[in-house]
Amino acid sequence: HRYGAGGPRVRPKDAGRGRASRSPSAATQPDVPPGSIASHSPRPLRVPAPYPRSLRAGPAPAPGRGCGDLPSSLRPEVSGGGCGGLGASEWGCVREGGLRGCGRDVPALPAPPVPGLSAALLSAFQNKLVDRCERLQLQSAAIAKHVDEVLPARSQGVLVSPARELVIQRLILVGKVCENEEQRLLEEVHAEEERAQQSILTQQAHWTEALQKLSALRTYLVDMITNLDDQGLVNAEQEIFERTELAEGILEPQESAKLNFNQQCVQSPLLHRLWASAVLCCSQEISIDEKTVSPHLSLSEDKKTLTFSPKKAKLDLDGPERFDHWPNALAAAAFHTGLHAWKVSVEKSCAYKLGVCYGSLPRKGPGNEARLGFNAASWVFSRYDKEFRFLHAGQPRPVELLRAPTEIGVLVDFAGGEVLFYDPDSCTILFSHREAFAAPLYPVFAVAHQSISLRPRARTFGKEPNHSPSTPQEHSAF
């Protein structure tokens, strides 16, 4: 946009009254606001609509303020005095009828140029506005296309998504597999019940017959003793000997496992894994009793994390509940019935023990009485470096694993007499042990390397440890 020498000017006598004079060309165009870009541009603007006619001059700015308030991207880089280096009348400042304080509320529009103003500067400013309008128009077109075309297509894709059908098909398959497994196990149970019952009936018939023989022999001997004299007894000695010899062949009853129901018939790896997974989905909240925490361990504020320290901490209170040598800790509450499950994050540690124990477990001294897994009052799953074991009563049972678990679930069926250790990530049963528990059980923990943490109720998926396993040397007799 360029202005000729005869372009519109601001009359000095009107500048003092706070309004800009119109050029003759603007006066002949009543629909074009005076001072707008459209009234002075020789080429058409690529904008949706002309600027509104309601724009009007605002009040005079405060001293020292003017067109310098324009954004730096729109401010002309010229030197000189006045508003940002330009005369007030050159940029439509409020002192010469500008728009509401140099664009602080409404962007200021360039006023008709005055002699000496650079035409290139005006053209650059106008081109910036036009480019900005074009970018806004392109952005609006992209958004409109997204709303009109992309989103409806995506909505239709969501409605016909195969995810719903996939879930239904998989659950139907799982249901069928469970039904088949249920039928198989019930048939196994029925067959085992019949076998055990038949064994009982067979033994019952056998011992009933033996009892009858013994009773008949006893009656015979009583008759012989009662009715025969001494000579008659001597004569009947051979007959009496033969009959009593038959009685000696009847042995006393012995305990037989055949008379018991064999629980192995209901052992199903599929059922066991499904059961463990279902129980862990409803794992309970457990907190650690700070009164039992060893001086080698520090307990977090939420009572969920145990951190090992080679140096014993100085404790204000050392009660009878606290372990004073082994790095052990007990949960705050015990249970004596029902089904219980909790999860522990062990990805940071390569020396820990998890399990259950009786409340009578000793707490003091370095002996095996207080060492988890080395007495009859504790059942634990143990890791020491790359060695995994189940420990009870000082009898370790090795557990072969392909990889170290990052999280371990502990399940206790008190009535069923089972404690089970489970890897939720791989849905693998690490170890299962059956025991007739005789007293309330406490969840128990021990750590001799870094830290372990109780997991919240929500299921979390583990990840591979981000540290290199190291041999725990802090507590060598762990």
UniProtKB/TrEMBL annotation:
Q: Which CDD domains match?
A: SPRY_BSPRY
What Gene3D superfamilies does its record include? 2.60.120.920
Q: Where is this region: Disordered?
A: 1-73, 459-478
Question: Which Pfam families did the record assign?
Answer: PRY (PF13765), SPRY (PF00622)
- Where does the record place Polar residues bias? 467-478
The B30.2/SPRY domain is annotated at: 266-466
* UniProt-recorded name of the protein: B-box and SPRY domain containing
